[in-house]
Amino acid sequence: MQSTIETISQLERRMVLSVPLDAVEKEVQKRLTQLSKTAKIAGFRPGKVPMKMVTQQYGPQVRNEVISDQVQENFNAAVRENNLRVAGYPRVEPKAANESQSGQLEFQASFEVYPEVTLGDLTKVELTRPQVEVTAADIDRTMDVLRKQRATFKRVERAAQKGDQVMCDFTGRLDGEAFDGGQGRDFAITLGEGRMLPEFETALAGMKADETKFFPLPFPADYHGKEVAGKTAEFELTVKEVTEPQLPPLDGAFARLMGIADGNVETLRAEVKSNLQLQVKHRIEGLMKEQVMAAMRQHAETALPKSLVEMEMVSMARRLADELQKQGMKPEDIKLSPEMFRKQGEERVKRLLAVSEAVRQHSLQPKIEQVRALVAEVAQTYEEPEAVVRWHFENPERLANFEALATEHNLIEWMQASAQVTDKAMTLEEVMAPALSLVPAAGSGV
């Protein structure tokens, strides 16, 4: 087998692959002979089918498989021989007048290679590292949350207020007609949780059992239900029952309910503190990772393989479509095009290329002890931690996520040692706020 490589542009390459016909036919006959031992054709016992019939039935398919395998083998060999790093997947097409007089089949493979990456001066990067101390007040708030999660509800005759659970029936109508998803029977709503639109909860607050109310409800323009998005529906709402939460006392019984065998409340508080500290640790790691990844992307200089960008665009569109379906949207209502994600796809590919180069240049590959420590940390949440650790190490593929996490940790540690890091004191509530981001706004100089 032979191959030639042509440079089309900075990243694009074209390879011509030649496959000898005699080698193809020899392999085809070998596979057909093997297939004849098990081939099933009506009127013949397995292994007794005439070779001519096996060839007629399976010959074209086997020949295509052999050619495909040999082209792939030839391509892989040429890639290794020329030390090429192929980005994405090659596009392989037969050349015109394929069966040449020289007894060769010729194919053309078009592909891209990975670009060179310049990381830039990362010593000028500014990172903000949160410093958080878990306080007694943080533990108290968490204990209250745990109690609320295990609250019982007692019926009251007063009007509904924040924190109450209200059982109700409701029907929504557009132009006098009920619409899909606009009805509920014996529907339980806890006021203040934000599960319903704010206008719905506002209408419900202050109502008593057996009361009925009619009110208009405007739906946001971006509401997931296409039928009602941007429209105002008329709702009929009937309260059937109002109940208020009864929190369990913070005593030994509650501690045992939370898994503390001796019922010691102080032991429960110590465990809550430990869990909060672990959550804070992971949150800070996430905030540092976000800053590091943004800095890597902003400072790196590299060309972007179109194939990788397009693959990322398709992947992002597919993930969002899956998420919207999980939220209740119908597939036919999801109008997403990969082109909508081009900018994000380019940014993500640039970041991945920069990270890969940093890992290569600075030997940031994960160490086995790092991977084992991460596996052990996760395993502690199971009844038999050692068995969980053994299960992961039995198959290297099961360690992929932990290896990626260890690599990210090494990258973040290396960046913190290289960049300008400012420690910032923050409260637990501040650092755990879902919307918090410490990445400087565009144009801030980073």
Helix and strand arrangement:
Blueprint: E1 2-7, E2 12-20, H1 21-35, H2 51-81, E3 86-99, E4 104-113, E5 117-118, E6 126-132, H3 136-149, E7 152-156, E8 165-174, E9 177-190, H4 198-204, E10 212-218, E11 232-246, H5 252-257, H6 265-299, E12 301-302, H7 306-326, H8 342-361, H9 368-379, H10 385-394, H11 400-418, E13 420-426, H12 428-432
Parallel strand pairs: 6-13
Antiparallel strand pairs: 1-2, 2-4, 3-4, 5-12, 7-11, 8-9, 8-11, 10-11
Q: Give the end-to-end Cα distance, rounded to a whole number of Å.
A: 52 Å
Task: Kindly report the CATH topology of the largest domain.
Answer: Trigger factor, domain 2
- Mind summarizing the main beta sheet? 5 strands, antiparallel
Low-confidence stretches: none
Tally of separate helices: 12
Would you give an account of this structure?
This protein has 446 residues and is an alpha+beta fold. It folds into three domains: 2-113, 2-Layer Sandwich (Alpha-Beta Plaits); 122-132 and 281-432, Orthogonal Bundle (Trigger factor, domain 2), CATH 1.10.3120; 152-246, Roll (Chitinase A, domain 3). It is built from twelve helices and 13 strands. The protein has helices spanning 21-35, 51-81, 136-149, 198-204, 252-257, 265-299, 306-326, 342-361, 368-379, 385-394, 400-418, 428-432, and strands at residues 2-7, 12-20, 86-99, 104-113, 117-118, 126-132, 152-156, 165-174, 177-190, 212-218, 232-246, 301-302, 420-426. The strands form four sheets. Strands 7, 8, 9, 10 and 11 form a five-stranded antiparallel sheet that branches. Strand 1 (2-7) and strand 2 (12-20) form a beta hairpin. The longest helix is centred in the middle third of the chain and has 35 residues, at 265-299. The chain is extended. The model has no long low-confidence stretch (mean pLDDT 92).
